[in-house]
Specification:
alpha+beta; Putative glutamate--cysteine ligase 2; ATP binding; nucleotide-binding; two-stranded antiparallel sheet; Creatine Kinase, Chain A, domain 2
């Protein structure tokens, strides 16, 4: 059974005001002091962000438990230095992001200017094991129509600089400012994939291959396909669902490749529109149904995704739980809807952040 690992980026906030705080280095130092052997947490592009990575897991319940544990540990270390953590993909409150001081981040700020300074966005990246680069590229080619559905399920960034953006995932719109970000054309082979990456590097516009920000890509560090379209999810259960569906998509794509079934020949322009629609609507309106790329209610498109991966999820024992989790999201709403409902109820973005801090650690209020 394929293993899965999850990387989550969390927002550091003031526990009283809800405003982002640039204290990632202090939180990381506190984590290292508490357990020098634990290599879970990392700093990110902005000092208001903290990232953690789970270990590879084959059991989704174990993966979910590790996500919960890492979130609680992040909260504990942040509390020790006077901060809190929130699984929010953008800050609801106004913020002036502080770019990290490493040479890499400073190069990015010089090269990309305001696009770097405004990239205080928190994502969830899912790594799913593959047997080879050839299988990995075949998977990347076949995932493309379904990635927007994952983005809609995870959408958790309706607010930007104190305003409602009218988007469910504004993070994804900010992320698209990177020159290498977004959906990809069909590659067809590992050789063609590698050549495309080499051509991109030859332009001089990217610092290194880690900046090839495809929606789904081959990891250069692990033998995995890395799916990068999701907002960080407000609830750990939603993050586990995204990981479960990602493994189902990878396994289904690999089976299709081995069976000689060709990938859908969709153009990047249509895939971009599917991503935009998912970012705009989330689960509250229409999405684009991968079969034909025509509008359909979100519930219909989510059901189509579940049917697409049903055999793979049944074989791994995850189908019933995935169906239940999708039904709950459609009924109760993703993170974007929860945040908007909180604002409607409290009238305060500060209270929105406070409630999301609690939910990040598993509370419901």
């Amino acid at each position: 059974m394929r293993t899965v690992g999850v990387e989550e980026e969390l927002l550091l906030v003031d526990p009283e005001t809800g405003e982002p705080r640039a204290r990632s280095a202090a939180v990381l130092a506190r984590a290292e002091q508490a357990d020098a052997e634990q290599d879970v947490f990392e700093t990110e592009l902005h000092e208001q962000m903290l990232e953690f990575a789970t270990h590879p897991q084959s059991d989704m319940a174990a993966l979910g438990a590790e996500i919960v544990r890492c979130r609680k540990e992040a909260a504990r270390h942040a509390e020790d230095i006077g901060c809190a953590v929130a699984a929010l993909a953008t800050s609801p409150l106004p913020v002036s992001p502080a770019v990290g001081e490493t040479s890499r981040y400073q190069w990015m700020e010089r090269e990309y200017g305001i696009a770097t300074r405004e990239q205080l966005v928190m994502g969830c990246h899912v790594h799913v094991a593959v047997d080879s680069d050839e299988e990995g590229v075949a998977v990347v080619d076949r995932l493309r129509p379904w990635l927007a559905v994952l983005a809609a399920l995870s959408a958790n960034s309706p607010f930007w600089q104190g305003n409602d953006t009218s988007y469910s995932s504004y993070r994804s719109r900010v992320w698209q400012r990177w020159p290498s970000a977004g959906p990809t054309e069909l590659f067809g082979s590992a050789e063609a994939y590698d050549q495309r990456v080499a051509d991109m590097m030859a332009t001089g516009a990217l610092l290194d291959e880690k900046m090839v920000y495809f929606d789904a890509r081959l990891s250069r560090q692990y033998p995995t396909v890395e799916i990068r379209v999701s907002d960080v999810c407000l609830d750990a259960d939603t993050a586990t669902l995204i990981a479960t569906l990602s493994r189902g998509l990878v396994e289904t794509a690999a089976r299709d490749w081995r069976a000689g079934r060709e990938p859908a020949g969709l153009g990047v322009s249509v895939l971009r529109l599917a991503g935009w629609r998912a970012a705009r609507s989330g689960l509250t309106g229409d999405l684009l149904l991968p079969a034909g790329m025509r509008p359909a209610p979100a519930a219909t498109v989510v059901e189509a995704l579940l049917e697409h991966v049903a055999d793979a999820l049944a074989d791994s024992g995850d189908l019933d739980r995935a169906r239940e989790s999708c039904a709950r999201l459609l009924r109760e709403g993703n993170g974007a809807r929860v945040q908007r409902d909180l604002l409607a109820r409290t009238g305060s973005l500060r209270e929105v952040v406070a409630a999301c801090v609690r939910r990040t650690q598993g509370a419901t209020g």
